[in-house]
Amino acid sequence: MEAAPRNRAVERLLRGLYSAVLYVLVPVTVYHLIWRGFRQAEYLERWGERYAAYRTPPLDGCIWVHAVSVGEVNAAAPLVNALLDLRPDLRLLVTTITPTGSARVRALWGERVEHVYLPYDLSGAVRRFLAHVRPRLALVLETELWPNLLFCCRDHGVPAYLVNARLSERSLRGYRALRPLVGRALRTLTRVAAQSEADAGRFVQLGARPDAVSVLGNLKFDIRVDEAARRTAAAFAAHSGGRRAWIAASTHPEEEAAVIAMHRRLRARWPDLLLLWAPRHPERFRPVAQACVEAGWRVATRQLTQWPDGEDDVFVIDTLGELVHFYACAEVAFVGGSLQPVGGHNLLEPAALGVPVVTGPHLHNFADIAQRMDEAGALRIGADADAVAAELEALLGDDDARAAMVAEGLRLVKEGRGALALTLDMITPELPPA
Question: Which residues form the Glycosyl transferase family domain (predicted)?
Answer without folding.
Answer: 244-408
